[in-house]
Amino acid sequence: MSLDQVSRRRGRAQAGVLLLALLMAAIFLADTLTRLEVAMAVFYVVVILLALSLLPRRGVIGVALICAALTVFSLFLTPEGGSLRSVGLVNAAISIAAIGITAYLALKRAAAEEAAQEARVQLARLSRVQSMGELTASIAHEINQPLAAIVTSGSACQRWLEHDPPNLERGLRALQRMIDDANRASEVVKRIRRLLRNAEPRMASVDLADIAAESVDMTRGEMQRRGVTLNERIQEGLPAVRADPVQIGQVIINLLLNAIEAMRDMPSGERRLTLWVSVAEPGQVQVVVADTGPGLSPQARERLFDAFWTTKPDGTGLGLTISRAIVESHGGRLWTEPAKRGGATFCFTLPVTAKDAVADKDAVADKDA
Ligand code: ADP
């Protein structure tokens, strides 16, 4: 998040807390000045519901306790006595019960929302791991078969050549089988690469800003857990792109998770993630994901997009390979930029839809005229 956004958010939070305090003071005054049979204190539930969106869990509990204390306090300050005192006591008890129940239910709901958010991230990770696991298994199976055949033919060839006298004709036939099987293995690799590139996406006219915002939502819990701050700049009024929102969401989530993981060993306070979405050039929407991690070594730069190249103990080395294949199948490009101040920067572009491309060009032409 940029400094500007941080100070704007802080300003909004301070204004919210001030509003809470004013509301509490107003209810306290009204409760003290009105007669004891009027249960004004019940309105403290509004304060608690507001506090929920402004304060952390402990803050909400604190506000609920203050509201309950103010209810009791104003009961003693209200200048009416006699038989009305018992009515006031009943009203105060009802108000305090309402405050307690509201705080309890509101906090329970917030906890449930947090758990649901967590589950969504887990699901996104699981689907990433699952699809990669399936892909790895199928690649291993397809390649293992010709490899096993090559070993069999190789042993046969060796036997025919060791024969006395050597049986050259059969040896040569075994060699030919080895060449055929090796070609088959390389054909399998080519087919898989083609498959990844041509995986039929479900295209629609979509707003990359929405996909980026959803991807951020999916990874927000992970960012908070790892103490990562986000600088998010999404240009307003972006032209639509033709894309499969699920696939492009996977690409952004993959880049965000890689960035978060890369900053694991950085000192807290220096884990900053940047996500920019903008029109970089007419007809192209660009997404940039940058981090303040250790950056890319020369070897990483060379091998980053190789299938199965990973430096993580539990990595698959397929995330970037698949991401690049997805972006290219959308007619876009995915690359890394030399980072100016350390860390790694990944960018990808997607072409805007034909209709928006025309509008985009017209806008540029209007500007030039
Ligand atoms: P995986 O995440 O399973 O390792 P990827 O293809 O997504 O597979 O990434 C391959 C490798 O590229 C990672 O293991 C890591 O070494 C490197 N890498 C990816 N993103 C970053 C980044 N933001 N900073 C530094 N290294 C990165």
UniProtKB/TrEMBL annotation:
Its EC number is 2.7.13.3. Coiled coil: none annotated. The chain crosses the membrane at residues 12-30, 36-55, 60-77, 89-107. InterPro entries: HATPase_C_sf, HATPase_dom, His_kinase_dom, HisK_dim/P_dom, HisK_dim/P_sf, Sig_transdc_His_kin-like_C. SUPFAM superfamilies: ATPase domain of HSP90 chaperone/DNA topoisomerase II/histidine kinase, Homodimeric domain of signal transducing histidine kinase. GO terms for molecular function: ATP binding; phosphorelay sensor kinase activity. It comes from the Bacteria. Pfam families: HATPase_c, HisKA. Residues 138-354 form the Histidine kinase domain. It is an enzyme of class 2 (transferase). It catalyses: ATP + protein L-histidine = ADP + protein N-phospho-L-histidine. The keyword Transmembrane helix applies. Keywords: ATP-binding, Kinase, Membrane, Nucleotide-binding, Phosphoprotein, Transferase, Transmembrane, Transmembrane helix, Two-component regulatory system. This is histidine kinase. It comes from Achromobacter aloeverae.
